[in-house]
Amino acid sequence: MIPSFATGLSDAAAPDFLPRDRFAPTCFDPAFSGVIPDLADTERLVTGTAWAEGPVWFGDGRYLLWSDIPNNRILRWSEETRRSSVFRSPSHHANGNTRDREGRLITCEHETRRVTRTEYDGRITVLADRFEGKRLNSPNDVVVGPDGSVWFSDPDYGLNSHYEGGGGEAECPVALYRIDPGGGVHLMDDGFINPNGLCFSPDRRTLYVIDTGAQPNIIRACALNSGHDRITSHRVLITAPPGEAGDGFRCDAAGNLWCGWGGPAGQNGVKIFGSDGALRAFIPLPERCANLCFGGVRRNRLFMAASHGLYALHVNAQGDVTV
User: Fold this and answer.
1) How far is CA 268 from its chain centroid?
2) Largest CB tally within 10 Å, which of 59, 115, 138, 251?
3) Is 165 helix (H, G, I), strand (E, B) or coil?
4) What number of other Cβ atoms are within 10 A of residue 268's Cβ?
């Protein structure tokens, strides 16, 4: 590992693969076994983050952005140089990131309690920081709908921890919100204990939401109306085993859910579920995985933002093209 003294990060200039005897993926569904190649090993790309979150791939620049929440920065990893650098500091303790349908960066910020968009020239546009005149709590994760609307979760985690750049009193209920293309902010559902990770199904008929406030954690499948702008019903799809916790997730093009996961020894990494909620595979990591995304030239490289590092694995699945 080559340290970057300016950032406190260590880059793996040469491949740094995890020992396969300890970190080999496991497939529970024989029909899924070919999705994780036998010859593919999980690679550690970067170490030195305090709590990594919100990875998002920029294929047009061949780089990944991800958040280091306690260190108040967004980081950048280049596929061409294999080096990491600071993309934005301070980041207002940014958490979740995604891209809108024009390719611009959308970011959730704990410190400022807002959702922002980074314009092509680098200017920051505030998309939402209040609802009905009251400040949001601490926007956490964010996805973009087929009509360009921005959906985000707003739990109270940032308010409860100065470590994550928050602090302050709640003014709004924890909830799931939608910013329509015209700029209006709408409360979609306040029935969660603490909504966290978000992900659309490839057909955009379902929004998956993980409630990390519920004990045990649950992932709800929320059915959307034909206009994709309202939740018509929801059901519990996945219930985490006691002592385990999900976080951020993404769908592959076939509709499987790839979920950042944490728990007791041997349960940290990524759990993969079918659209029916059945566990299909597990990718172990040395530490808890907070969030992930697909990237690379063919969208088949899984990038995993874990507690103190960034990991990657080539798979025989492609990420949903619009997330």
Assistant:
1) 16
2) 138
3) coil
4) 21
pLDDT tens per residue across span 184-205: 999 999 999 999 999 999 999 9
Structural tokens at position 240: 């985490």
Residues 6 or more apart whose Cβ sits within 8 Å of residue 171: 134, 135, 136, 137
* Residue whose pair of structure tokens reads 């910013």 in the numeric block: 179
143, 199 contact by CB (below 8 A)? yes
From CA 165, how far away is CA 71, in angstroms rounded? 9
Q: Which two tokens stand for residue 190?
A: 């306040």
Residue spans of alpha helices (H) in 82-161: none
Q: Strand order in 63-68's β-sheet?
A: 52-58, 63-68, 73-78, 84-88
Reported residue count of the chain is 323
Exposed / middle / buried, residue 243 (Cβ in 10 Å: 0-12, 13-18, 19+): exposed
Q: For residue 261, how many C-alpha atoms fall within 13 Å in the half-sphere facing its CB?
A: 29
CA–CA separation, 278 vs 289, rounded Å? 20
Q: What are phi and psi of 190, to 5 degrees?
A: -115, 25
Query: How far, in Å, CA of 138 to CA of 76, rounded?
Result: 23
pLDDT tens digits for range 161-184? 888 887 789 999 999 999 999 999
